[in-house]
Design brief:
Length: about 375
């Protein structure tokens, strides 16, 4: 099998970081493809595409703590690069598929509310983050990969009365010429967590792709008992999350009286006003609210009921990993605070494994020149 030669690319921010260009797999090997992982976080989307035979040729993630977790779990010869806005397209290797979970804060309900309160712009007007979509667009324009997958919060569709999403669609369809499909998917099909995210997939050539190909298990089949530490000795203790021969959850995750009283008072105050703000208390048979990046602050959106004689507790970082669909051999090399932020910002891995599976034949069709005839 013929392969083009590799050459080294140097990260503009750190000359010690180099990334080899891994050649694109050709038509004689249609089941394999190269992809790049932008705004990579801790690699949740990547895991889905590796599961269908993809090879990661380039990674960009600006957060140094996320880089540490990513590098601990993916033994690449290209360490995660930094700020994508500072990396010229000439230094990004050729690739077949572009993956990008571009920052969602400018479009999320919480993000918009916070920026409005502070008098700051949001959406594409947010100079710090909103325009990062256009870094995705410039790479698509320069590299013309066969396919892409973009991920964001559900609110992206309705932000600014739909105008933000209209700009995204126009850019991808009319300016870049990609056939695009989008769908809001709730991770609750796969994990015991209500977590809706929009997934946008695109193909360089017309294809027969359809969201009907997704196999989504019935909601409610997954419960918190499947991700919680059993605390009965059936799993090995994992310091400092669980301790002793029964692998009991450390007391450090139980809320203090002061914090628990505050959260109860906060919830009562808002109930009196007729709104639903407050903590989310769950047990083994329940489904959790959405895990957010702010979980480290008080854990209020997902508190584990420990019975009437004990205050509830936070999830451990390992339980957060399970709630997002990460396997137990996923390494967590950072502090609890950073881990909570990382899993709260992550995608639910099984969702993207299933989306990748649905995309797989159509990626192959574009790469082998069968896409247009297949679509016809």
């Amino acid at each position: 099998m013929m392969r083009s030669q590799s050459k080294m690319l140097v990260d503009p921010e750190n000359s010690a970081l180099s990334r080899p260009i891994v050649p694109i797999y050709g038509q004689d090997d249609p089941c394999r493809f190269n992809f790049i992982d932008l705004f990579a976080g801790i690699g949740g989307i990547r895991m889905g595409f590796e599961a269908i035979g993809g090879h990661c040729a380039f990674t960009s993630e600006w957060n140094t703590f996320a880089q540490k977790t990513y590098a601990s779990n993916f033994r690449d010869n290209h360490p995660p690069g930094g700020d994508i806005t500072k990396i010229p397209t000439s230094e990004i290797p050729p690739h077949d598929v572009l993956l990008a979970g571009f920052p969602c804060q400018p479009f999320s309900i919480a993000g918009v509310s916070k920026k409005n309160a502070l008098g700051r712009k949001h959406g594409f007007a947010c100079e710090a983050q909103g325009t990062l979509f256009f870094d995705v667009a410039r790479i698509l324009e320069a590299k013309r990969p066969a396919a892409f997958l973009l991920e964001n919060v559900k609110n992206l569709v309705s932000h600014d009365k739909g105008r933000t999403f209209a700009v995204i669609q126009k850019t991808l369809r009319e300016e870049l010429g990609y056939q695009i499909f989008y769908k809001v998917i709730d991770a609750q099909h796969f994990v015991p967590q209500h977590r809706e995210r929009i997934v946008i997939v695109g193909f360089r050539e017309p294809t027969a792709f359809s969201w009907e190909a997704l196999k989504l298990p019935e909601k409610g089949t997954q419960r918190m008992s499947q991700i919680l530490h059993p605390e009965d000795g059936s799993e090995k203790p994992e310091a400092h999350y669980t301790l002793g021969p029964l692998a009991k959850v450390s007391d450090k995750y139980t809320l203090s009286d002061k914090l628990w009283n505050y959260l109860k008072g906060y919830a009562a105050k808002h109930r009196a006003k007729g709104n639903g703000f407050g903590f989310g208390l769950v047990g083994p048979d329940d489904v959790a609210r959405t895990l957010s990046a702010r979980y480290y602050k008080d854990g209020s959106e997902i508190l584990i009921d420990q019975g009437p004689k004990r205050n509830p507790r936070r999830l451990t970082p390992r339980e957060c990993a399970r709630l997002m669909g990460y396997p137990d051999n996923f390494t967590i090399p950072v502090s609890d605070t950073q881990a909570y932020k990382q899993f709260g910002n992550s995608v639910a891995v099984p969702v993207f494994r299933e989306v990748a599976r649905a995309m797989q034949p159509h990626i192959g069709a574009v790469l082998t020149g069968r896409a247009s005839s297949q679509a016809a």
